[in-house]
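Q: Okay, next protein. This is DUF1932 domain-containing protein from Aurantiacibacter rhizosphaerae. I've checked the sequence twice, so it should be correct. Can you predict the 3D structure?
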Amino acid sequence: MTPNVALIGFGEAGETFMRAAQWEGAKGWDMLAERRAALAKCGVGLGEDCGEVLATCDVILSLVTADQALDAAREYAPYLPQEAMWLDMNSVAPQTKAMAAEAIEAVNVRYVDVAIMAPVDKGLDVPLLVSGNKADKAVDVLETLGFTDARAVGKTVGRASAIKLCRSIMVKGVEALTAELVLAASQAGVLDEVFDSLDASEKNLPWAERANYNLDRMLIHGGRRSAEMIEAAEMLRAMGTSAAMSDQTVAWHSSLGNLDLTPPPETLSAKIKAIRATPDFRGEN
């Protein structure tokens, strides 16, 4: 049997999932009146308040904005039926998920950390990572709800979110670097040549090998590379383009280049251990 579903927050993710699943008897709540109207248009039941919405639910999908995730857990916990399951699908830090879990579990409700790992326009086929001491059960529940690609990744709340946010460092970072690159290169009239050069130098390596190679270059040549990136940042400022990413690139290359780990350890794990063990490294730039 499909459990009784409640959606807390009805933005893009909530509406996409509801339209794809059409959960019978689903209820929902959103702080914004216009989103509550959208809930009704999608056939989601509304109560007079959130307490009425939550009173009879078995599974709650928390899909609020990131800055509201912890507040939602704390505010709505008193209204949750015991033994219900709170699926926290918000993109927040592992420590935020841990604090939310404390609030939810204090009222004998099962808390689960769920990380959405791709754009929600994939609907119920979007990949989900699940962690917490009820992760395996939550995967079964998600499959019952129609999700096709849910996978447990550990018993610790926050592990799924750590995977998502660490990945986001690269994905969103590359997007930000792309913006900085194309705005500068197009203004300089060299965009096509830069793209050709990047294509020619691209190495098709697995990410673990690529990370090991990148750290190797930074540890050996960080000083020289930081000096080069200082010039790149100055070029950007002269063009009137933000140098935010390039400035931080300077800081990282300088930080690692100054650790005096030459020659660097051979493996990625050894490099990471050596960097963190260096007295001058504080993980800050």
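A: Here is a summary of the prediction. The chain has a mean pLDDT of 93. Residues 207-239 form the longest helix (33 residues).
Q: Noted. On to the next one.
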